[in-house]
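Morning!

This is the sequence you dropped in the shared folder:
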Amino acid sequence: MPLLPLAMPRADVRFNARFLPPADADALLRELTDGIAWRQEPIRLFGREVLQPRLIAWHGDAGAAYRYSGLQLQPAALTPTLHALRLRLQQATGATYNSVLLNLYRHGQDSMGWHADDEPELGPAPVIASLSLGATRRFRFRRRPNASFEAAPVSLDLPHGSLLLMQGPTQHNWQHALPKTARPVGPRINLTFRNIIS
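The structure's back. C-alpha cells below.
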C-alpha cells in the first residue's frame, strides 16, 4: 500500500497505516525496546530545565550531530537493524537519511509538545520519515501561529507499523505534537529518520 497524501494546505504529508507487516513491526518493537540505550535528557523550557517527558536515543552516520531545545546530540552508530530500516525507508520514500531520533513513550503521560522540525541543520525543506511501533497514539497538526493562511487542525491516529512522511513546505507552515492522554495506553516507540546537513 503506497503513502497517501493528507488534505493539508501548504504541506506535503503522506501516510501509510500498514507500512510494516505485523510480524516485522512486532519483532522491531521487541528489539528496539531491549536493544537501545534509552535515556531521559533535560531540556530548557520557558527558561527552566526540565526532564523530557519521554526517553530518547540518537543514532546516525559520523558527524550527524543534532541540536534542539538546548540539547546537542552526538550520534551513536546505526545498529544493523537501524541501517536496514533506513535502506527500506529510503526505497519507500525516495529520500536520503543519515540519522534517526528514537522516542520511547512509556505511557500516556509521556508526550511531545508543539514544535516544527525546522532546525538549520535539517535544510530548507526537511524530509522526516516517522515510523510508529507499539500502542496507537493520536498525532496532531496545527498551522503555525504566524502562518498567512487559515486551516483547521488535523488529527491522525498512528498505529503499530505505520509510516508518516512530512516533507516540502510542511515544517515552515505547520507544527505537530503528540499530546498526553488520560486513557490507559501501552508503550510506543517512534523513529524519525532525517538528513542532517553538516
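Headline: The chain is about 15% helix and 40% strand.

More detail when I'm at my desk.
O.
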